[in-house]
Design brief:
The complex is a heterodimer of chains A (388) and B (358). With 388 residues, chain A is mainly alpha-helical. Helices cover 70% and strands 2% of the residues of chain A. Chain B has twelve helices and twelve strands.
């Protein structure tokens, strides 16, 4: 009987139309959405004039290259984090119970979700802060500062002190920009930097690591030696050079560090995948007739994903902090108000207008801390070596 | 006799390692007939598993390599088959069950997903239908409440249940040949008997051949039609299960049987010495350093060719004492234990008391 079906559903059929392709339905969904984004991007880039906003309804939003990349990243997160979590509700509930044990992590997750949502939506709704020297150095609401500090105190002046107003709840900078708006813009910058770079790093690193581990021999040798070379390659200097040539840009930052920073992830994934590749279920899958790519995509990658996710959560704050430090050193993108840049701007006013540097500094600090807390809790929840 | 389903001729599988060339399988030949159960027996490291994995080329290349030999399955030589064609055979017509049920299931997927995967890798059936078939299979291999357990994860099953699931996956495509690599070694004796009984039932039901790899002679006595005794990558003796158990002809087979408690002079006797170095095997018969009957002829040249035992072409042994004109009685010790050959086979595996589930 098996013989009959074998000849009927001949070899060619297997190659072209098997129901179990290497890519899952989710992969296809992600791929199609990705292609759609590319198509819209090309339309925006090639057809629409650069000055014309891509979207006019409901808000005017001229989508930049970086925004496109961010949208793609968000889609990837939806397809590879949200959808699987929803699909495997029982497993999700289990992980959530484990995760919940760590109160700080739950708090961090809540905080990060708020930062994420405000960061994504805020800059679309809020206008970019502009120079307004007459509003410079306003203190935060419910705070006061010596009335000599702001040129023109917007709030009440009582006994020689300028009171902050709700018009600028977190005060303004030395050039009159609202710090709350700057911070919200900074949230988006941080999310873009953290998420896009990490996605690039994780995708490439996982692909290279698993292929090297499973391919073994020459493939492994070639890929890992390339990783060795890449790890000694000073991406920072490449970034400096390009900044010098073309001026700093966030897009460039993300691309350079995203595309050159995956070496250590590749190594991590490879060492993990080497162990997994020896497991019997891999042999079992091969003995069931699965091809190389299928085994890698459907059996190897899911089994290393826990360590990848944990590593990724700890990579994100690294990128955010790195971008902040470069911006602080004025090596960042001068056109985007990142937290590092605002901190750097307020540095000289620290003695009179402490809030300029402090407010974004606090946000930077708490965000990094929250990611680290979450990473720790995720490792506790996801690491299979702790539960068996 | 009709043409066997699987016919292995002079198979040589080697591994290129830093220590040198390991000849894990060194000229192995045997047949598996249709509907037959053949047991591959030998101690750990004798090349049984590599033989089983060589059939569908599951060994990792590199470092492994099938250097020589023919593996004819249903008229096709698998050694010359392209990777794609071989992949179509794997799982579809030749299925594997592995030793360790804990490891054979992917922990990140439900068992249902994995059975559906096994079905859909080879057959164009819609998901719902594959699911129905999967539940059916689970039920068939004896998982209680199969519908409910279908969406459970492997860690929610016990070892014996996992092995049943693995069996269900292997049977998903109704294979012609099932290669079971020590399927019961990791299980306790009662579960072992259940699984063996199940294998027996399923063999009849699915009309398949089984190549059972094991080191447990009790298992062999229970299920085998024919036995292939391997040692250090070579076949020492092969023949029907009754012939081999009643008239063990190779000193190694005899030594293996003597390891069983209750055999021979009563107590279990272990084989002295250890397996030869895999990179530098001894000349002559591989077993001669540990053989009580070794003579000078054993230590020279190659492994002796297969000689028929008592003129029975189906029962062959690779031992110099059986060469034409030789004196097999030296090895068989027929003067010392004249009734040995006459012992009924069923008495042997008393410690496994096996028949209850078949």
């Amino acid at each position: 009987m098996a013989r009959g079906t074998d000849t009927f559903e001949s070899v060619d059929w297997e190659e072209t139309g098997s129901r179990l392709s290497t890519l899952s339905r989710r992969d296809w969904g992600a791929l199609l959405s990705g292609l759609a984004i590319v198509a819209v991007f090309l339309y925006d880039y090639l057809v629409l004039p650069a000055s014309r906003p891509t979207i006019t309804v409901p808000v005017e939003w001229n989508v930049t290259q970086l925004d496109w990349l961010f949208v793609a990243t968000l889609l990837a997160i939806v397809f590879y984090v949200a959808v699987p979590l929803y699909d495997n509700r029982r497993l999700t509930a289990y992980y959530w119970r484990e995760f919940r044990k760590n109160r700080m992590a739950v708090l961090s997750l809540g905080y990060l979700l708020v930062v994420f949502c405000i960061g994504v939506v805020g800059p679309i709704l809020l206008e970019k802060p502009t120079l307004a020297l007459d509003q410079a150095y306003q203190p935060p609401a419910y705070m006061s500062v010596d009335s000599s500090v702001p040129v023109n105190c917007l709030g009440e002046v009582a006994s020689g002190r300028c009171q902050g107003t709700m018009a600028h709840p977190l005060g303004t900078t030395g050039d009159g920009k609202d710090i709350l708006v700057l911070v919200i813009y900074g949230m988006q910058v941080s999310m873009k930097v953290g998420l896009i770079s990490t996605l690039l790093v994780v995708t490439i690193g996982t692909a290279v690591g698993t292929v090297a581990a499973y391919g073994s021999g020459l493939v492994d040798e070639l890929l890992m030696r390339y990783v060795d070379i890449q790890l000694v390659f000073p991406a920072f200097f490449l970034y400096l050079l390009l900044t010098y040539l073309f001026g700093g840009s966030l897009f460039m930052f993300i691309l350079i560090f995203g595309l050159t920073g995956w070496g250590s992830i590749a190594r991590l994934v490879r060492s993990e995948a080497l162990q997994r590749a020896e497991e019997e279920y891999i042999t079992a899958a091969r003995s069931a007739g699965a091809g190389t790519l299928y085994v890698i995509r459907r059996h190897l990658v899911p089994n290393v994903s826990n360590s990848v996710i944990t590593a990724a959560t700890l990579l994100i704050p690294g990128f955010i902090l790195f971008e902040a430090s470069l911006s602080f050193l004025s090596l960042g993108d001068p056109t985007v108000p990142s937290w590092g840049q605002v901190i750097a701007n307020g540095r000289s006013d620290l003695s009179t207008a402490w809030w300029i540097s402090t407010v974004p500094g606090v946000f930077l600090f708490t965000t990094i801390l929250a990611f680290n807390f979450m990473g720790d809790a995720l490792r506790d929840a996801l690491d299979p070596r702790q539960e068996t | 006799m009709t043409e066997p389903l699987l016919s292995i001729r002079d198979l040589r599988t080697v591994f290129h390692t830093d220590e040198g060339l390991v000849r894990a399988v060194d000229g192995v030949s045997f047949d598996v007939g249709r509907g037959e159960t053949v047991c591959l027996v030998g101690e750990s490291g004798s090349g049984k598993t590599v033989t089983g994995e060589s059939i569908t080329r599951l060994i990792r290349t590199p470092p492994g390599e099938i250097a020589e030999g023919e593996i004819v399955f249903d008229g096709r030589d698998l050694t010359t088959l392209s990777d794609g064609d071989l992949r179509d055979l794997r799982g579809d017509r030749i299925a594997h069950v592995f030793q360790n049920p804990q490891g054979a299931l992917n922990p990140v997927y439900t068992v249902g997903w994995q059975i559906v995967e096994a079905i859909q890798l080879h057959a164009d059936v819609p998901r719902a239908e594959a699911r129905a078939r999967g539940v059916d299979l689970l039920d068939r291999v004896g998982i209680p409440e199969a519908t409910r357990r279908f969406d459970d994860y492997p860690h929610e099953f016990s070892g014996g249940m996992k092995q049943r699931v693995a069996l269900a996956m292997a049977l998903a495509t109704n294979p012609d040949l099932l290669i079971a690599d020590e399927p019961t070694t990791a299980l306790d004796v009662t579960i072992q008997n259940q699984i063996l009984g199940l294998l027996d039932e399923l063999q009849a039901e699915f009309d398949m051949s089984i190549l059972l790899i094991t080191h447990d002679l009790g298992v062999v006595a229970e299920v085998a039609d024919r036995v292939v005794v391997m040692y250090a990558g070579k076949v020492m003796e092969r023949g029907g299960v009754f012939d081999v158990f009643e008239r063990p002809s190779h000193p190694y087979t005899r030594a293996l049987l003597d390891c069983l408690p209750g055999r021979g002079d009563g107590g279990a006797t272990s084989i002295g010495g250890k397996l030869p170095s895999p990179t530098d095997p001894p000349e002559g018969c591989r077993f001669h350093p540990r053989c009580a009957y070794a003579v000078d002829a054993c230590k020279r040249g190659d492994q002796p060719p297969d000689y028929a035992v008592d003129g029975d072409e189906d029962h062959v042994v690779s031992c110099v004492h059986y060469e034409p004109g030789g004196d097999p009685s030296v090895v068989r010790g027929e003067e010392a234990v004249p009734t040995d050959g006459g012992r009924p086979v069923d008495d042997e595996p008393t410690h496994t008391d096996g028949e209850e589930h078949t």
